[in-house]
Design a protein that fits this description.
The protein has 4 helices and 11 strands; from the N terminus they run βββαβαββαββαβββ. By secondary structure, the protein is α+β, with helices and mostly antiparallel strands.
Length: about 190
């Protein structure tokens, strides 16, 4: 691994759009600077061996030009919310999708910040108490838990938003017309 220079060297590693604390993910990406060129499969095996069971390195590729984070413009999420009433959840989703704007507040490290959930929401499908949503990454970054907070804001009878289990299924280049998210490494 390569390290920065200077008085206090740090490993050259960059996490691109890391999932929020408490969320599961099947699509996390990071960039690691190496001190010398290595075979990607050799790097994958070494990383996989060093990580705890269940935290698997699926693929390693040599970086293309530009920052990986710039290619991560959208994400697909599944939200399993077993305590939410399916009818109320569906009705709240319809209300949210009908709005031009819906703002929620979230505490950040720099204090309270407002996020327009509706502007980032490309699609929202409800199947019982499970949501599938596609979000466009922007500044500020709207997260799946912000969408859940918006749905509770529309209908407080949905219950506690922390009962929802968030899983990021994919992230990559977003096609806003189709709502699809492609492989950022392709």
């Amino acid at each position: 691994m390569a390290y920065s220079s200077g008085f206090s060297p740090h490993p050259r590693i960059s996490y691109a759009n890391a999932a929020p604390t408490g969320a599961a993910s099947e699509a996390e990406y990071l960039e690691i600077g190496l001190a010398e060129r290595r075979d990607p499969e050799q790097v994958r095996r070494a990383l996989d061996a060093a990580l705890p069971p269940g935290l698997d390195v699926v693929e390693v590729v040599e970086a293309a030009g530009g920052a990986l984070a710039d290619r991560l413009t959208g994400s697909v999420w599944m939200v399993d919310w077993p305590t939410a009433d399916a009818r109320a959840l569906s009705a709240s989703a319809e209300v949210l999708l009908a709005r031009k704007e819906y703002t929620v507040d979230r505490m950040t490290k720099n204090g309270m910040r407002s996020f327009d959930v509706r502007a980032a929401l490309v699609s929202l499908d409800v199947d019982g108490s499970t949501l599938r949503l596609v979000l466009e990454h922007g500044v500020p970054l709207v997260r799946a838990d912000d969408v859940v907070r918006a749905l509770v804001g529309i209908d407080p009878t949905l219950g506690v938003s922390t009962d929802a289990v968030l899983t990021r299924l994919a992230q990559g280049p977003l096609d806003r017309d189709t709502g699809g998210v492609a492989d950022p490494l392709a």
